Amino acid sequence: MKLAAVDIGSNAIRLQITTVTSFQGTYGLKKLEYLRFPLRLGKDVFLHQAISEASRRKFVRLMGVFKELMELYEVDHYMVCATSAMRESVNGVEIAKEVAETVGLHIEIIDGEREAELIDKALWSSIDAKTYLHIDVGGGSTELNIYKRSKKIGSRSFKIGSVRTLDEEHVPLSIWREMEEFIASNLNRESSVTCIGTGGNINKIMELSNPRKNKRYLDKHTIKLVQERLISYSYEERMHILNLNADRADVIVPASKIYLAAMDAARSSRMIVPDVGLKDGLMNLLFEKVLQERGLANQ
Fold it and tell me: Distance (Å, rounded) from C-alpha 67 to C-alpha 72?
């Protein structure tokens, strides 16, 4: 059986196709295909409250390509979820309806709480009885989850994202303070908090830190060093010297500021970077449904 998950973000759109494996009564997932397309829907929405006609046409064509790939891979079940750009766009629902009618893909436009809940599903392998702050920085929003003693005690979505904060005037200081207060009030000045960072930018920051093989964590000092290095380069230098994609080279600096602001509010000096995101949460949800269909939910 094959599954597909599509994450329609504010800075890029991702497709992952996975097959369900079975061996000696144990079920698992194996990735077959992953595609990331740099269509920045958030640029239109955060400036003009709507997806432009040019972006709309390209988006509908891209959904057609994704549908074609799903058919070629003979996908059995899929989920397509759109986050802050489409949910804030005045024509987001209209475009989702056009895709359903012309392409045959159903798009679910989800709120920030649902987004955080879905990412949760990909995180539990990193959660134990300690205290954690999960920071997921997207293009249009940042989702925060707080865990204590293996339970989630707080969750909130904030309109602070890497694309949105390219122009800091679009994010009032009051929202930054609201995010910091949410973290501080839920953690109640705990002295030992480990952060978990998800999103394409923190994974790229990890890569730029030249980590040891299999290392999946960063300390705050290292994140600051990478940030300083990024700031020292121009946009063009980040692409040509650091080999960053054009749609990563500009947003990675504002994203680093969001991660560091959250870490400061939590008084945390360490961040785990598990390299998972919304698409992985969607895939886990689909996998759970498959196991339930087969009466194997506890496998």
Answer: 9
